[in-house]
Amino acid sequence: MKAAPVMRALANRRGVRQTLVHTGQHYDKNLSDVFFSQLSMPEPDVNLEVGSGSHAWQTAEVMTRFEPVVLERKPDVVVVYGDVNSTVAAALVCSKLLIRVAHVEAGLRSFDRTMPEEINRIVTDRLADLLFTPSEDGDINLQSEGVSPEKIYRVGNVMIDSLVRLLPCAMQIPKNGLPDRYALVTLHRPSNVDDSATLQRILSSLLEVNQRLEVVFPVHPRTRQRIEQFGINIEKLHLLEPLPYIEFLSLQRRAAAVITDSGGIQEETTYLGVPCLTLRSNTERPATVTLGTNVLIGQDLGRLGSELLKILDGKAKRGSIPPLWDGNAGERIAEVMTG
């Protein structure tokens, strides 16, 4: 999602040779392989095939398998994306080998260190040589942490590049029997799905939502595993398998509301102008709240119902698209890297 626009822009620059490394951290077919096809990305030059594991194991495994690739290929710069374990692992390897690191989606902060992603963001940004931020808050966060302004480049949101490019395809996908109005749900964060009591409360709230507005729920593999493990019955919801990006984007653009705990979906709904209710107490993407359509629900699930009523009554929060979320972030990154 984030690499495709940058790779496409760099491919048009003379003298640039790229190597695409897939760590294998995301390994579900619909969450990985199909994305390469839909985003018109080349097959990875290297697949580390790391798979799942604890944070420490996964980070260490990426480092162990990535280091020989870097030593063989001898890149001038390694581009890392987002805030997953692969991001910080690659940054650590390159930093110790004295290879420049460019971090796409730098500067995002939730200020909640119970989130593993927050640790990944902080460490990666301390090690990176080029920091590409999606919005003003990213610049402010980095400068407050002592990062030199000369390293920081506000380029916009690469996720929106992919959305803009693929939205016409998503608009051609038929409804396939879905209701005229529905709430689209995604749920995968450990803080929401790993504790049986918390997951039960959330799913009970979704069953209540379903009485007013049908809930369409593509179930993440991690979440499905927990639902089965805890023996929770949600058969009344419209359950789907994980969806490729274009199909999911089609559902997003048609939804009356999106209920999620995903950071990227907060951004996409803001661009699409779709009301977003986020099942988190904080967000590393505050522009989606201050400018966009996002409302943080936190653990107050009673608020989920009241905010949904506002949406059904036509009183949903109206937002605007943040500056530079225009589909050209990848080109700006390529310009900095080759200029």
Average pLDDT over all residues: 94
Fraction of residues in H or I helices: 40-55%
The number of helices is: 15
Pick out the low-confidence regions: none
Q: How much of the residues is beta strand, in percent? A: 5-15%
Span between termini: 24 Å
Structure class:
alpha/beta
Shape: globular
**Major β-sheet profile:** 6 strands, parallel
Spell out the helices and strands N to C.
HEHEHEHEHEHEHEHHEHEHEHEHEHH
The oligomerization state is single chain
User: How many strand elements?
Assistant: 12
**Rg over C-alpha atoms, rounded to the nearest angstrom:** 20 Å
As laid out across the biggest beta sheet, the strand order is 9-8-7-10-11-12
What labels would you give this structure?
12 strands, globular, 15 helices, alpha/beta, 12% strand
Describe this structure in words.
- 47% of the residues lie in helices and 12% in strands.
- By secondary structure, the chain is α/β, with parallel strands linked by helices.
- Helix 1 crosses helix 15.
- The model has no long low-confidence stretch (mean pLDDT 94).
